[in-house]
Amino acid sequence: MSQTLLSPEDLEAALRNVGAERYHNKHRFHARQYSGKCSFEEIQAWALNRYYYQSMIPIKDAIVLTRFTDAEDRRQWRKRIEDHDGLKPGDGGIERWLKLTDSLGFPRDYVESTAGILPATRFAVDAYVTLVRDRSPLEAVASSLTELFSPNIIGERMSGMLANYDYVSKDTLAYFSYRPTQAKRDADWALDYVKSHATTVEQQQAVINALKFKCNVLWAQLDALWSAYVDHYLPPDAWVPGTIAAPRSKAA
Question: Taking the model in full, what pTM does it have?
Answer without folding.
Answer: 0.95
